[in-house]
Amino acid sequence: MTFNMIIYSAAICATWSLCMSPVTAVRRLDTSVTTNQHHHQHLATLSELNTNATFRAPRRTVIGTNVDVPTANTPDDHLVTNLPLLDNDDFPTKHWAGLLPASDDGDKYLFYWLFAPDQEQIKKQKVAEKDIPLLIWLNGGPACSSMDGLWLENGPFRLTKDPKDPNKPWHIDIDPYSWHMAPAYVVYIDQPVGTGISFTTSGKYPTNDREVNVDFYYFLKKFLQLHKDKFLTQSDNSDNTKFTLSRPLYFSGESHAGHYIPSMMNYIQQQNKNSDITIQLAGAAIGNGWVDPIYQYSAQDAAYGYGMIGKAQQRALDVLEEKCREKLRNGIYRSETCFGLLDAVLDNSQGKSSPYIVSQYDQRKWEIKNKPRDFPPGHREVESYLGGHGPTIPGDFDFRNVLEAVHSLPSLKAGQVYYECTDPPYNALKHNDGLGVVPDVVDLLNSDIRLLFFNGIHDLICNHAGNENAVENFPWKFRDAFQKATRYGWKAPSKQQLGGYMKEHKNLQFLKVLDSGHMVPMDVPDISLDMIRMFMYHQSFQSYKQEIGTLSADESNPSCPICPTCENDGEKEAESPIASPVSCPKCDDCNKVCKDMKPNQESSSSSAGTSQLSGMVLGAVTFLTMAASWMICCLFLRRRRRSIDGHIPLSPRSGYDMELPKTNGFRDDVDESDGGGYADGENGHARAID
Length: 690
Hints:
Layout: H1 2-20, H2 46-55, E1 95-101, E2 108-115, H3 119-125, E3 134-138, H4 147-153, E4 157-160, E5 171-174, E6 185-190, E7 199-200, H5 209-226, H6 228-231, E8 232-236, E9 239-245, E10 249-254, H7 257-271, E11 277-278, E12 283-287, H8 293-296, H9 300-306, H10 311-329, H11 336-347, E13 356-359, E14 362-368, H12 379-387, H13 399-405, H14 409-413, H15 423-429, H16 438-446, E15 450-456, H17 464-472, H18 479-483, E16 487-492, E17 497-505, E18 508-513, H19 520-523, H20 525-536, E19 544-545, H21 553-556, H22 587-603, H23 608-643, E20 648-649, E21 657-658
Parallel strand pairs: 3-6, 3-10, 9-11, 10-12, 12-15, 15-18
Antiparallel strand pairs: 1-2, 2-6, 2-7, 4-5, 8-9, 13-14, 16-17, 16-19, 17-18, 20-21
């Protein structure tokens, strides 16, 4: 059987290579049409990308020149006093918004929106002024706006319209679970430049982590200096140029912000050595974060737990995951092998022939294949409010009045039109898709910075199983102790019911949040407010202890990196590599099964030679037959391609063409040397991480 499989594989590989080498690969598609695909790690099938390209042109910013951004000298210069659709009586809390430079040449500006803490909560929680933290919120993408967080997740504002009467005026409701109610100062920042309302006049978008960090750090110092009455204190009475933070500083964000935040925090720590502002870091709360792709491209463990795939399918994807890891170890950070791990689960979630597909952001929800996504709900309304496109807002509403109210009209003059996610900064950073930030995380942990990783348990794209594997394997000084730490059920105070499961040791915490998917604050706003309040104010999550023994990964399986199989009885490595030592079955159990089966194997050995000979003959005949069939198929496909002027078939079995030039490239820098992660070679997805 093994010989036959080798013959079959050789036939397929040889003939397929001959067919495809002279022509452009079927699964190539210009990433310029991924307009709606890089929100929260959007993965879009080729047909979906083609559909979206029909509906909307790529979201690109137009580079402007000679843009005058008024200098803000005091916080009042950025005070928001008259926001369209908001009744000021409904929201007495002070808030500030505007543009601040991210470079000293006047080329780059980042947009921020800052909210003061709720005064009633300060009294209720009995918090001293100096203990009220500053919390920085970032969405991911890369290049997705933090206005998602403000308007859809944990900010105070919600755009509301009458679903029955589209002509009825919209208004802004106040979310009672906004994180400024913790209490905290909360600032939402659009970064990197080119994201949301932030802009560059030269088109010099960051291309790596350091460039992102340099821009952000420059902006952060300008922000703290402008609002120094709230955030800074003079660190040396004899030197009025040296300042330090006057309150705790936390970061929070989700998805690709799990990449941004550790890198930024580590950069800030390095800059503190020679800066006129010392920025002490208290910690970070990262939701469904994209931190370590070595463990997080995998979706099969979560999918198996949800019942979406079977055990045999899980094992098949385990083999594919090991191939993905090998590519990542070799510095190939955009590989279809890795993308294929999630793609396989999504595309087969209801069967290949079904018109429905499970949502990658919440496995409880379903979407229609080949239709533009509308996730997260409400983001198109925010695009109307801040960018002037999308659903029409009734009355004499003009989005330019909103930009004026938040002191950001220069952004529009620079050619930056607000979209939830924008292409240019995404395209500049997408090559780092598979590059993790574990060294930054380890540096922070070993510096005793508090880190909370929380995960909605119904997410697939940044799923709880992959994230837990990543967190468990951070190579920090207390790794083994964290692996063995006791888990607790956490009772959320707002509901007096179980909100999730917490595991913690020292300054590292991992929380699985119930009833939520990729965007935890959107799904469970009350519980997420409990979580961030308890984290920032050092309150215990240990409500109900789980009385189950624990072992570290090394203790559970110290000598079994690759288990023996019944075929080789442990004399050589198994043919199917195990994803990691943590997931490897115990060797004792494996050996026991092999021992029980050994008599049957011995009794059948007498017929092995005859079977092998007949298998070789059958394999040779099969090779010749398959080779001839594939050659005929390839000649037909090549002739058909030549007859189609400028079109590429969606797949070898599709009945229609994609209206794209043959020269277009799908993920120009994606490695496809392995043929991708699909047995049928049909589906490809454009990935980005929010």
